[in-house]
Amino acid sequence: MALEKWVAIASIGLYVMFVGEIISVFNFIINMPANFEFGTSFEPSPKILQFISIGVAPACVLSGLAFLLSKRYGSKQIGSMILSGGIILLIGMAYCYSLLDKIPDSYMVDAVVITPPLFMGVSIPVIIVGLILIKTNKKRPKKEYF
Q1: Which residue among 57, 90, 111, 137 has its CA within the 20 to 30 Å range from the CA of 46?
Q2: pTM for the full predicted model
Q3: Is 113 among the domain residues?
């Protein structure tokens, strides 16, 4: 496979990893063990920022790189991979947004509240880039008559 296909596959993996990490943090906050609060405290903001920096930020960069590598000739396969990454991010963040009602007020910090809507917004340009790549046709070489 060409480089752009591997980059698109890696971006899908990073999108899935980020969504899984955020869902697991939200589920941990909702189902906090009873004995956890006595000895230590849990801060969700640093974990969420860490997951953003190792998950979705590189995924967006890799999606953009795959687009730039294949935008001249267009590719339905790479476009559909970028599109599926955006859809995975959108659906995952919509699910996380539905979990916000169940999170206790003591853990409702800015990072917890802002992350799902922010990355639902980020997923829209990723989906658009994937659709653009799917719609792009291969440029045919010009025929030289003389």
Answers
A1: 90
A2: 0.87
A3: yes
